[in-house]
Amino acid sequence: MPGMLIILSGLPGTGKTTIARELARECAAVHLRIDTIEQALRDTGVTVIDHGYRVAYALAEDSLRLGFTVIADSVNPIQLTREAWHDVAKRAGTSHLDIEIVCSDKTEHRRRVETRSADITGHNLPTWADVEGRTYEPWQTERLVVDSAQETVEIAAQSLARRISSAQSPAAS
What we know:
CATH superfamily: P-loop containing nucleotide triphosphate hydrolases
Shape: globular
CATH class: Alpha Beta
Number of helices: 7
Number of domains: 1
Helix content: 40-55%
């Protein structure tokens, strides 16, 4: 069965990585997390601009060409990066699915941002002010929206896994 590029987007603290990890387990997919890549680059002395995304695009394309499903986990805040992910899928000859993770409960979203701990050594998490001030362009294209304030991680991942499986089945082609 051919792989598929799953493009997760959303502001920090919405639950992207938590959902991505569970979804990767459900689908036996490769999980590419921009934060991990960027911190590894910083650890080597690189001043990161768009380097993390560029590395992730290359890794995703390689994995897709091998037939793996890839979950790209990043804020993906602007149309340029969203289109770049679509280009990765196109070059690899596979389909993609855009998923935006939101947290409709602002109090809960703020609580998550302010109480979480870094799970990557050396990674500085954004503050609530950083999240509120971040550039995040409105979507202009179709995507699935998952509201992490309304669904548990497990339910969201299971629902997305079913959607991915359905999209990958021969009848969906």
